[in-house]
Amino acid sequence: MKKLNSKRVKESITENTYVVLPGDTNPLGNLFGGTMMSWIDVTASIVALRHCGSIVVTAAMDDLFFIHPVKLGDVVTMKASINFASKHSVEVGVKVFAETATKQIKKHTASAYLTMVALDEKGKVKKVPSIDPQTEDEQRRYKQAQQRREWRLGRKTKVY
Ligand SMILES: CC(C)(COP(=O)(O)OP(=O)(O)OC[C@H]1O[C@@H](n2cnc3c(N)ncnc32)[C@H](O)[C@@H]1OP(=O)(O)O)[C@@H](O)C(=O)NCCC(=O)NCCS
To answer: Does ligand 1 come within 6 angstroms of the Cβ of 70?
Structure first.
């Protein structure tokens, strides 16, 4: 049975699709990293917004590796879901795929984990619903996200 004030992962799953236009690329026709980061951020925000039901801001984006270049005309799909919820924040995982539709090639080009914090209408941090991981994958992601959270917050204390 679902716990009170908890939500299922599937309730906030989000998929966004973009096409790489000339204004998104460098002179070699490769997508700018910053543009992809912006798409990742928007996609993660929608997941967090759906889960928290409130305003959300990005507190952190973990290491982001661009595995393959994404080319002009490619179709880029972002698949995102919530991994973990603590008191005022959630971790969202985003997986990015690029598809050269004319050649029927689809590649996993990047992955990212973002921490989003919920705010009320006065801009104060706000409690978020917990999550209730159901499937094996959801439970694995939940455990891994807990470990990343410790690493992330430990690093924050050292850096600031
Ligand atoms: C994110 C922000 C609201 C946190 O404010 P704060 O005063 O540190 O608030 P708190 O200490 O009460 O922490 C609130 C939550 O943020 C989390 N948090 C704060 N800094 C974090 C960081 N660097 N990484 C991950 N989580 C962080 C805390 O763990 C806490 O969540 P929890 O209760 O689930 O553990 C504040 O730093 C902020 O407004 N940052 C700017 C956000 C923004 O504008 N983003 C867009 C960038 S252009």
So the answer is: no
